[in-house]
Amino acid sequence: MNKKTARILATGAYLPDKVLTNKDLENMVDTSDDWITTRTGIKERRIAAEDQSTSDMGVIAAERAIKKSGLDKTNIDAIIVATITPDMFFPSTACFIQRKLGLTHIPCFDISAACTGYIFSLVTAAQFLKTGAFKNILVVAAEKMSAITDWEDRATCVLFGDGAGAAVVSEEKGSMEIGQFFLGSDGRCTDILNIPAGGSFCPASEETVKKRLHFTKMTGQDVFKHAVRYMTESAENVLKKSGLKIEDIDCLLPHQANIRIITAVAKRLGIPEEKVYLNVHECGNMSAASSSVGLDGILSQQKDVKRILMVAFGAGLTYGALLLQKLGEKNG
Ligand code: UT7
User: Fold this and answer.
1) What are phi and psi of 261, to 5 degrees?
2) Are residues 185 and 133 part of one domain?
């Protein structure tokens, strides 16, 4: 019997129309284009319309991926959505996307792994496919970061953007295989990047809203330090497991939080900058959606790419890496 595989059959992405530039931010908080560019690499980011939810963006990316896949949407056996900006606490954003796609009676659930969410979700989908439980899974990573951003806090509001990406992953169709992976979390760091209020620990009240505790809080330098170490270690782990050297990788797709983090990780891994995919300058940090929009960008622009190494970190902390490899490519 043939060994079952998990493959990327097609991808899609969506970015909202509204562009918010660093110049625009200069008129909102005490910041400058120069500070944002040199500290983060970000020049502009996309912002969803007020009445546009995470599932609204996710469903557009999903429809684009499904169309490219050539599958009828009724062939989708499950929907997994990576997000930290769900439409509502419950039901899951996956259920909203299911409803908007007009699908019924398939399992739909969200994964909360912050910026590493797309890697966690692709790996989860791959397990269902490899065991033969499902044949085709829709994986979406979508974020409306603007909804959880404190637009009065210059330390965080310059960093984030909105967007969505999706992939149809399939047991038997598609040329890019989901290969070796590494996933990790460090719950000791839950206090360096979070939204303090609104959950069961500190339910929303007039007081929490007044204190702006329903917005993202971050100790930037601590996150930075951990990010470089965990991303490097995750990528090295996958290379080792795969029997590959960094020279074997055609494209590194790192989480797009900050150009300085990306450059530091690339340097430690020894991969030249022309092999490192970037969209941080035009999209900012879209949390889980950064990797999904990035993967769609790579696969639609670089037709002959054979091996992509995805690597990410995020709140939790969570971290991980995933190798995507053209079918038939030998390791090492
Ligand atoms: O997806 C995961 C999420 N997050 C991340 O990956 C973020 C990781 N961390 C970072 O990217 C960086 O730490 C930041 C970009 C957030 C900040 O850069 P930094 O070099 O660590 O700056 P800092 O926090 O040490 O701040 C340096 C100075 C401070 O002023 P003083 O105390 O030196 O006078 C800040 O108040 O820069 C000030 N500052 C700003 N100035 C202009 C902070 N934000 C701004 C701003 N514009 N937007």
Assistant:
1) -65, -45
2) no
pTM of the model: 0.97
Choice among 22, 194, 237, 285 that is catalytic: 285
The string of pLDDT tens digits covering residues 117-133 is 999 999 999 999 999 99
Other Cβ atoms less than 10 A from the Cβ of 42: the count is 26
Question: What is the domain-level CATH number for residue 20?
Answer: 3.40.47.10
Low-confidence spans in the chain with pLDDT less than 70: 1-2, 330-332
State the sign of the Cα–Cα–Cα–Cα dihedral 260, 268, 288, 69.
Answer: positive
**102 plus 198 within the same structural domain:** no
Binding pocket residue ranges, ligand 1, CB within 6 Å: 31, 35-36, 39-40, 115, 154-155, 158, 193, 218, 220-221, 223-224, 227, 257-258, 261, 285, 314
Residue 105 annotated in active site: no
* Cis check: omega of the bond before 317, within 30 degrees of 0: yes
331 located within any domain: no
Please count the structural domains in the chain: 2
Task: Supply the range of the domain harboring residue 224.
Answer: 179-326
**What's the confidence (pLDDT) of residue 332?**
52
Which of 95, 115, 157, 283 does the annotation list as catalytic? Answer: 115
115 catalytic per annotation: yes
What six digits make up the tokens of 323? Answer: 């190798």
67 & 139 share domain = yes
Check whether residue 210 and residue 318 sit in a common domain.
yes
